[in-house]
Design brief:
Layout (H helix, E strand, L loop, with lengths): L3 E6 L7 H15 L3 E5 L3 H6 L2 E4 L25 E3 L2 E3 L2 H10 L4 E6 L1 H12 L4 E5 L15 H22 L2 E6 L6 H10 L3 E3 L7 H13 L5 E6 L5 H15 L4 H18 L2 H13 L3 E5 L11 H20 L4 E6 L2 E6 L15 H8 L12
Parallel strand pairs: 1-2, 1-6, 6-7, 7-12, 8-10, 8-11, 9-10
Antiparallel strand pairs: 2-3, 4-5, 12-13
Helix pairs in contact: 1-11, 5-6, 6-12, 7-10, 8-9
The structure holds 6-O-phosphono-beta-D-fructofuranose (F6P).
């Protein structure tokens, strides 16, 4: 009998989601004769049984479209807002999965989606995931769908900020996304030739940034581009956060874990708007006029790059083959030029941060970029 497959997209949208849906759908329907249904708006559509049948017609013409034709949400199956109450809807999801006689459910998403997908795997569903996030912070996959596009958008923004910063002799601070990792800021900062790059993995010292900007001024460069990851923090707060994350990891009880989570949330709330503060502080300390640009959701909008289309098509078609072989409980990861099936248990709850000896960090230091910690090679 033909296999039936459900697919949903969850978490923040990313360019390349439609390319992945298309690849999975075309391979599954065309080459393997499967039936595919899409659930709307992430796990919520699975609870509310809102579906769209995917066929050759509606899978056509979507390769280059940004967003997701299925819609997305950040709803969690075990804590869903239903009429103002937070309810565990996992059993409803299991029921609906069986109602549609699904052989597998494909969840396309980032860290949160993987945790949610794993919960459904534990309930006995055949789950398979595709890694998608502009943050590139999923363990197990070299890269994730959407990252390359966001990187290109952020890089182009730095290029454009250069001419205006240069003309006005200003410091321009550019805040980019990335959640609690610095992949996007570091990648775009190196590609765009930023003078200072600040990432969560390297808590920064404002005095060191001041020194590096003033040194540039003395050398005749009266402008600077400072690229900051949204999660980057000054040294004191960064060290406090690292200690809290350790505390949460080492927690011996649920209460202890919840307490650490609360403290982390509080610190993150207190740090909101830190890039504005940074721009003000740099203006005061250097005497150079400063401006702040927050790139925000522009990084998630529009058509995917060629690299993201290729990645989404590779992962989507490989996903169809894994379903055909009956391999579940896995994430379809990108490894080198190929694709690997990684057990979901090895991915869930882990965050891929930028290693301090990563070649991008070494290259940034090599060209004299200040990373806020005083270590530069030139
Ligand atoms: O995870 C992707 C991401 O874009 C992060 O970089 C950012 O912190 C977050 O989502 C923003 O989420 P929202 O869609 O709720 O604004």
């Amino acid at each position: 009998m033909n296999k039936s497959v459900g697919v949903l997209t969850a978490g923040g949208d990313s360019p390349g989601l439609n390319a992945a849906i298309r690849a999975l759908g075309k391979a599954a329907i065309g080459a393997m004769n499967m039936n595919i249904i899409g659930f709307r708006d992430g796990f919520r559509g699975l609870v509310e049984n809102r579906i769209v049948r995917l066929d050759k017609q509606n899978l056509s013409g979507i390769l280059t479209l940004g967003g997701t034709i299925l819609g997305t949400s950040r709803d969690k199956p075990h804590r869903m807002n239903i009429g103002g109450k937070s309810l565990d809807m996992t059993d409803v999801i299991v029921e609906n999965y069986h109602k549609h006689h699904l052989d597998a459910l494909v969840c396309i998403g980032g860290g949160g989606t993987h945790k949610n997908a794993y919960r459904l795997l534990e309930k006995g569903l055949n789950i398979i995931t595709l890694p998608k996030t502009i943050d590139n912070d999923l363990e197990g996959s070299d890269t994730t769908i959407g990252f390359d596009t966001a990187l290109s958008i952020a890089t182009e923004s730095i290029d454009r900020l250069h001419s205006t910063a240069h003309s006005h002799h200003r410091i321009i601070v550019l805040e980019v996304m990335g959640h609690n990792t610095g992949w996007l800021a570091l990648g775009a900062g190196v590609s765009g030739g930023a003078d200072v790059i600040l990432i969560p993995e390297i808590p920064y010292d404002i005095k060191i940034i001041e020194k590096s900007i003033l040194r540039r001024s003395r050398g005749g460069k009266n402008f600077s581009i400072v690229v900051v990851a949204e999660g980057a923090l000054p040294r004191k707060e960064g060290e406090k956060l690292a200690a809290l994350v350790q505390k949460k990891r080492g927690a011996k009880s649920k209460d202890e874990k919840e307490q650490a989570s609360k403290e982390i949330q509080m610190l993150e709330r207190e740090s909101a708007g830190h890039t504005m503060r940074l721009a003000h502080q740099l203006e005061e300390r250097t005497g150079l006029e400063s401006r702040l640009t927050i790139l925000g959701h522009l990084q998630r909008g529009g058509a995917p790059t060629a690299a993201d289309r290729l990645l989404a098509t590779r992962l989507g078609t490989a996903c169809a083959s894994f379903i055909q072989e009956g391999r579940y409980g896995i994430m379809v990861a990108s490894r080198g030029q190929g694709v690997e099936a990684i057990p979901l248990a090895d991915v869930v709850g882990k965050r891929k941060v930028v290693p301090l000896d990563h070649p991008w960090i070494e290259s940034a230091r090599g060209v004299g970029t200040c990373l806020g910690d005083g270590q530069t090679l030139v």
